[in-house]
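Recap from last week: sequence in, structure out.
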Amino acid sequence: MKLCRVGAPGQEKPALVDDQGRLRDLSAVLPDIDGSALSAAGLAKLAAISATNLPLIEDKPRYGVPVANASKFICIGLNYSEHAAESGLPIPSEPIVFFKANSAICGPNDDTIQPLNSTKLDWEVELGVVIGALARNVPEEKALDFVAGYCVVNDVSERAFQMQSSQWDKGKGCDTFGPAGPWLVTKDEVPDPQALPMSLSVNGRRMQDGNTRTMIFGVKAIISYVSRYMTLMPGDIIATGTPSGVGMGQKPEPVWLKPGDVVELGIEGLGTQRQHVVSYR
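Predicted structure tokens:
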């Protein structure tokens, strides 16, 4: 299933994408797509519903974040060796974990707002993993049992803020720095999360081309590792790192986003995003 939330910010309603690519309203079936809806029982209930019995959404609404009220937005840094190299940093010996503020999470096509005093605004296409069951000290071989589905994430970053200290959060957690969606694709439709082509373009120029198979730490390893240190809750989002091609790594000089730029990104089978960069206002 492709599950999504559509409507104005703060007024999104649950929906799904049917086999013909049309939006269907889920409002009569459940109040929202949140952690409780993403449990095994909740997804089984949704899978049993005939999409043809759901009302069509005829207009072209705004897509919101595909899962509501995530308790955590967890990110993994330097998880592709070529990205670590272009960043001038060593390949990590274990996953690097940091967080985005929940206020950074936004819809997949919402504007990216350049913060005040920002000079090095950057992009990162990433596979997002959405947790579907409470996970604590999960063995790696069972990690995918705790996944509800997957989505596209842009780990928008302000490198000047990020590199001011050893903690990355303030360069990663600004408002609009966590576009997610357009939909959550349930794990039954993604047989191998380590075989997904991904790409990102800026103003029509391809900047990133990668594949999740080249992760240093795969999805199973990430879930197992993070669950040792914190309880993962249904609805939590984990962004799993980006391949090479970020603005910071461009040669001979870095390339930074500026107001007026358009960023387009996607992962095969999980949809696409499009963001306009705008000034803080």
